[in-house]
Write a structure and sequence with these properties.
Three copies of one chain form a homotrimer. The first copy, chain A, contains 13 helices and eleven strands. Chain A has about 325 residues and is α/β, with parallel strands linked by helices. The first copy, chain A, has two domains: about 150 residues, Aspartate/ornithine carbamoyltransferase (Rossmann fold, 3-Layer(aba) Sandwich), CATH 3.40.50.1370; about 150 residues, Aspartate/ornithine carbamoyltransferase (Rossmann fold, 3-Layer(aba) Sandwich). The first copy, chain A, has a five-stranded parallel sheet with strand order 9-8-7-10-11. Chain A has a four-stranded parallel sheet with strand order 2-1-5-6, with helices on both faces. In chain A, helix 1 crosses helix 13 and helix 7 crosses helix 13. The interface between A and C is medium-sized, with 28 and 30 residues.
Chain lengths: ~325, ~325, ~325
């Protein structure tokens, strides 16, 4: 593993998943790997789970960590090549990333999409600059289009919870009050469409289609009820439109997941990457039911990160 | 000890005090307790002493630490049960606390009172939610009504400084320009009214009475001069009104502690939790005198926290 | 070494430089020095390099670190002696620094000049208060007039890169869009005018003269081209006026360093403390050339700090 930015970087996902389960069973057993290593974490946007689970993952591995709130703690970054920097930006990302690479052994970076310029977002313009200028391995803590540590944690959660060989996993769109990135659903598709013991189904209102690059031909079922039939795991998530880029196409409250929606499933376990808007995306009854895995799922963020750090530092 | 939120949680205060003095004498001698442990610290409000002394306490104990500025670093939290989260709040405290519990072994949390809704504040509505949703031990870094780590540090300071068996300790109200919480004086009363080698007296202008739940029948003397007579230790602190909740009842500058006020004491040592408004609450002459213990007192915040962490992690 | 605030504090610079090169060659070889030690870092202003390189230096040395954004994380500080604190400031620097000294073994502090009150800035009013109230060794992370960790890193960079015994080093003023402090050029002069294997030349537009206290009689050449002739190393940096204090005297774009400017040098290596305004201070062609040492120079910030911490903690 050179960097970790998508499913493709994971290499053989079965090996990586096995490694994650071993690390979870013995979280402090790999500290020779992290000794004298420092994990740098840069956030261009707020974070709770990613920030803290990444720090904990570094600590478990016997490594140190630092966190930088880009912007608030340091300087405003210029992204454009060839810019004449006589305006508001104070430092070019070229220097910033190359410099920070010297203060750590792995660099985790969170960027967010513009949700305005689809081409810029989907070409991962910013993240690719980071990859270009970094001189240490880079971990995506969420980029403009993907959130691979989340999807890997989801995979760990499903794998350690499932009670039969093959399982049906459904990704369902959910309503929200704001226009959200497509990173989490894109990434969920990027991973789960490849898992050979998963029957993967995506359901959302028409017009909410994700980039086919990530859905990879997975079954899309516009009838939510039909999609959820017999499901073993349901991941709910809102996203804004990929077609009509960044727009909120639907607010349809009937898509909010409630016990009624779950009725036709195989007593499905419930997933959500968090933060979740209670009683907007998902009802309290679902989130507070024993079938909800959301806390365990967030807990597995430590082990997805720790496994990735282990691979990159070993 | 299960959590640490008040004097009652301290168990036998004599044993805890003894432990604190031993830890202070040998701060790095207990690192087997902190090994592979992480202390999570969440601040809903600014902090200097609590933030840094807690981090140092974790380090002394051989543990790691992370600090989260709730709000600035992460998401806006919803506190209400059953809320339909279609407004400004982005994550429910139920998830936030349960998730963060998985990224640490002890969770320290600072909340502040509203100073508007006495019932909400004095029922510790927010802090009790945190206790309810946490799955690891919780340490109050100051709640709506109490600041037990401060009072424990005060007790350590008095215990290690006193030169005779019994001492007279006076808590005196002091003027301020803003409406402040009652946490520190409540907590000081909560602790010092229980110490069997302390004669405890409270003095303040009429109308500044604290909640009797915390003063526990301690002597209240409205004449500051009389109260200070023969005092061995004086703790000065402003607080807003408990009766006329959150209001500034008095600005009376004659309550500002000066050498004149101290004249009738037994060469009293001076305490203040800091930050202190110089020449408003207390004069320079008091703060800069050799009898001032305020720096030592702040230093003992490391050892009150380290002792509590030691109890919770051992 | 008692504190580290200027070249004078460095003691014998040759010994310190030698130590830095040894530490760089074996960065984890001195962890007995940092064991159970904590480095406190206080920033009154944004920082990227200083913040992160200082944390990394502490980690390399086996020490722990904490970072405080003064103001944002904690309380507004009062600087004036004898102040009646009934306004916006919440804590006096006297308490703040004495308290923080108890939570660490070395205190790093960054302050910035006012650029309005030259006497206050050049008497290091704020930094001297910090030195006065601190009870542990203090490291300047940049003060009102100096940035010694940067200059020491520059010296390491030149020393490890130079290919002959004596080298010509030129500090050249560069244009900028804002009024910047004089710290970096002052400090560069403070150090390089003392190095016995350096021929040191300063070049800038007339009116941009630095404080002679720091230039110490070094050669000043107003003709940039002439100054650069035969140079082995060129450090570019903008600064505002010392004479007409804090004012921008020149924006002359002809001072921007380009390959043309470098033509007469001895294939000079290029230095800049960063952040740099690309194509305003220096052209892309210079920054992106193989002769640019700016990234290596920033990397050496780890080792200048680590060497200083080693001296102060040993």
């Amino acid at each position: 593993m050179k960097n970790f930015t998508s499913f493709a970087d994971a290499g053989d996902y079965k090996t990586l998943l096995q490694q994650a389960l071993e690390i979870k069973a013995n979280p402090f057993g790999y500290q020779h790997i992290g000794r004298n290593k420092t994990v740098g974490l840069i956030f261009f946007n707020p974070s709770l789970r990613t920030r803290l689970s990444s720090v904990k993952a570094a600590y478990n591995l016997g490594a140190q960590a630092w966190v930088l709130n880009a912007g608030a703690d340091s300087w405003t970054l210029e992204m454009a090549d060839g810019a004449v920097m006589n305006g508001g930006t104070q430092e070019h990302i070229k220097e910033a990333i190359a410099v920070m690479s010297q203060y750590c052994d792995v660099l985790g970076v969170r960027t967010f999409p513009t949700l305005k310029d689809r081409e810029a977002d989907y070409s991962e313009e910013v993240f690719n600059k980071i990859l270009k200028y970094a001189t240490v391995p880079v971990v995506s803590l969420e980029s403009a289009t993907l959130h691979p540590l989340q999807s890997f944690a989801d995979l760990i959660t499903v794998a350690e919870t499932k009670e039969k060989e093959r399982v049906k996993v459904v990704l369902t769109w959910a309503p929200h009050v704001r226009a959200l990135p497509q990173c989490v659903p894109n990434s969920f598709c990027d991973w789960f469409s490849e898992v050979d013991w998963v029957d993967f189904v995506i359901t959302h209102p028409e017009g909410c289609e994700l980039d086919p690059k990530f859905t990879k031909g997975a079954r899309i079922e516009y009838d939510q009820k039909k999609a959820l039939e017999g499901a073993d795991f349901v991941q709910a998530k809102n996203w804004s439109s990929y077609q009509d880029y960044g727009q909120v196409i639907s607010n349809d409250p009937s898509w909010m997941l409630t016990p009624e929606h779950i009725a036709g499933t195989n007593d499905a376990k419930f997933l959500h990457c968090l933060p979740v808007r209670r009683n907007v995306e998902v009802s309290d009854a679902i989130l507070d039911s024993p079938n909800s895995l959301v806390i365990q799922e967030a807990g597995n963020r430590v082990f997805s990160m720790q496994t990735v750090l282990h691979e990159l530092l070993k």
